[in-house]
Design goal:
The protein is an alpha+beta fold and about 110 residues long. The protein is built from 3 helices and 2 strands.
Length: about 110
């Protein structure tokens, strides 16, 4: 006689199907659906920002207001995203040395 034990639910709870963290989000900041909001002081600065937006294919609503301070933090955040850092693994003792001598690392440069 075989016994089968099922631990868990057969159907997924309805409330958990509709909610949760969406990793495949379609709306990105700087697109047509979600434009950047920028405030500049002069028309010349607006033209400079528009050129930067064209070069990076971004969309923004630019407001010219001489009374307010310039606010382009959203643009700076998109343009200066941190990149992934890669670490080169160090040589172990018994690998060939990277200086090209042909000796093991422990006998050559790893003193």
């Amino acid at each position: 006689m075989h016994k089968v034990f099922f631990k868990g639910r057969i159907e997924v709870r309805e409330q958990y199907q509709r909610f949760g963290y969406n990793t495949n989000r379609q709306v990105k900041l700087g697109s047509a659906n979600s434009p950047l909001t920028l405030v500049v002081c002069t028309v010349q600065r607006k033209e400079e920002i528009e050129q930067i937006l064209l070069d990076n294919s971004l969309v923004a609503n630019i407001e010219i207001d001489t009374d307010k301070h310039e606010n382009i933090m959203e643009l700076d955040a998109i343009l200066n995203k941190p990149t992934t850092q890669t670490v080169i693994p160090s040589l172990s003792r018994n690998e060939p040395c990277n200086c090209g001598s042909g000796k093991k690392f422990k006998k050559c440069c790893g003193k």
